[in-house]
Write a structure and sequence with these properties.
Blueprint (H helix, E strand, L loop, with lengths): L2 H20 L6 E9 L4 H13 L8 H4 L3 E7 L11 H9 L13 E9 L12 E9 L2 H5 L8 H12 L5 H9 L9 H20 L37 H23 L6 E6 L1 H7 L1 H17 L7 H7 L5 E6 L10 H19 L5 E6 L7 E6 L4 E8 L6 E4 L9 H8 L33 H9 L4
Parallel strand pairs: 1-4, 1-5, 5-6, 6-7
Antiparallel strand pairs: 2-3, 3-4, 8-9, 9-10
Length: 470
């Protein structure tokens, strides 16, 4: 370890001690990390959560809102001046306009501070006055979270895993063909390096579009200002011994540079400071994509759990070991794409995925939970007569066409093993049923004063993540 790294660790430990010693004399802060995998709806979740905390008429399952403990909620300047601000007002305007549209997805890290003015309730309500609790929301792409697993492997180990995943995935065969046409032991040719990286990136994008969750390295999908840089110009290789000056030796160096210059700073500067975390999952999309996508989602959940430090933010623990995440919620989004009679099945499947992931990651310490939610409800429920009996459907406006359509995705099994077992056994397709998905546009809203946007169980998610601190 170099002197700069040692000095950096000492500085950060001093900062943690200072924060811990001064926190009893300052307003409490909850740092909520929000991330998601494969278009799970992070931007809509944050926008709807903040809007519903500011206008709490639909938050009956959040105790602090229901009993009036939250007097008011208002936005304040965020504490980190180096991060972009989450564009809450613009996103809310798009969702609530007369012709609503979905906001663009998360492509970089951003932050927003919502301050809650709290009035104590119960026996202590007359003994103390109002207090302020700050909620700092950190929004970041789910692919960046999965990148943390790269810190535990070397280039050869990662290459073996990545090549094994590529076989059979969309775009994987094309990448493997490109890989087979290039010799990694030959002298470095930058043209070959770029051709490999472009083919690998195309495969990752194709896999994500097909519903797969683990598409690391994440910056290959969201390069930003790093597009075309050497730190994003590498790919997994089949060999593990490379002579000096070879293509393989250079790509190995760039992989380590990616971990050192991209992954570690994210963990150090942002991820390691989170108290609570919600991971949004498009479970319905994975089911529609088939057993391989469900198996990949289960593995991604295990990798996510493995990235967290388990435990509680005890006083001495925070001094000597740094901040630890106390609660992690895995939320299956788009519950409004199902009739409410199927919500228990979606929740059970998500809970089963979490249970397997927890066992695989040998995870213990932080409190974890799973539920099904819709951050913004876009459909209404109907029952239609199909001739052979009634069918429970949802009806909404189709994205792109604007037409109203009734939708039935298929019957989710009451026993999650009917999905998880074929996925674990390597099945390519579901044998007895075809699950469908539909892309709905946000519906025009007419909000009463004091009401936030309509949702499904957003108040229960907020109660799990924040209730004990409010």
């Amino acid at each position: 370890m170099g002197l700069a790294a040692i000095a950096d660790q000492i500085t950060r430990r001093v900062d943690r001690v200072t924060e811990t010693l001064t926190s009893p004399f300052s307003d409490p802060v909850i740092r909520l990390g929000v991330t998601g995998l494969s278009r799970a709806g992070k931007t809509v979740f944050i926008t709807s959560l903040v809007a519903n905390l500011m206008d709490r008429g639909r938050m009956s399952q959040m105790r602090a809102a229901a009993d009036g403990a939250i007097q008011t909620a208002y936005l304040q300047p965020q504490p980190d001046d180096t991060l972009p601000r989450f564009e809450f007002e613009d996103h809310l305007r798009r969702l609530t306009s007369p012709t609503p549209s979905w906001p663009e997805g998360t492509r970089h890290i951003s932050e927003l501070r919502l301050s809650l003015r709290m009035q104590p309730t119960g026996l202590l309500s007359g003994l103390s006055g109002p207090r302020t609790v700050h909620l700092d929301i950190i929004d970041y792409p789910g692919e960046w979270l999965l990148d943390l697993g790269l810190l535990d492997v070397n280039f050869a180990e990662w290459s073996k895993q990545a090549i094994a995943r590529a076989a059979g995935r969309p775009g994987g065969d094309a990448f493997l063909a490109t890989l087979g046409s290039i010799s990694a032991t030959e002298k470095l040719d930058e043209t070959d390096a770029q051709r490999l990286a472009k083919s690998f990136t195309a495969y990752l994008n194709a896999s994500r579009e097909a519903g797969f969750s683990d598409c690391t390295p994440g910056r290959f999908l969201l390069p930003g200002d790093l597009a075309g840089s050497p730190v994003l110009t590498f790919a997994p290789l089949g060999d593990d011994k490379f002579p000096r000056g070879s293509l393989g030796r250079e790509l190995e160096r760039r992989f380590e540079s990616y971990k050192r210059n991209i992954v570690k700073p994210f963990f150090r500067d942002h991820f390691a400071k989170i108290d609570r975390q919600i991971v949004l999952l498009d479970v319905l999309g994975a089911i529609h994509a088939g057993p391989p996508a469900v198996a990949d989602l289960r593995q991604a959940m295990a990798d996510i759990l493995g990235a967290f430090k388990p435990g509680r933010n005890a006083f001495l623990t925070r001094i000597f070991q740094g901040r630890r995440v106390e609660k992690i919620l895995f939320a299956a989004t788009k519950a409004d794409h199902l009739h409410h009679t199927q919500h228990p099945q979606l929740t059970s499947i998500t809970e089963a995925l979490l249970r397997e992931a927890r066992d695989k990651a040998r995870f213990a310490g932080a409190k974890t939970s799973a539920m099904s939610i819709a951050s913004l409800r876009t459909t209404v429920e109907e029952t239609v007569d199909q001739g052979d009996g009634p069918l429970n459907v949802v009806k909404g406006q189709l994205l792109g066409t604007g037409k109203q359509a009734a939708f039935y995705p298929g019957a989710l099994p009451t026993d999650p093993s009917h999905l998880l077992a074929p996925a674990a056994d390597g099945a390519k397709e579901w044998l007895d049923v075809d699950y469908q998905v539909m892309n709905f546009a946000p519906a025009p809203l007419t909000l009463r004063p004091g009401d936030g946007p309509p949702h499904i169980r957003l108040d229960r998610a907020a109660e799990f993540l924040l209730g004990d601190r409010l």
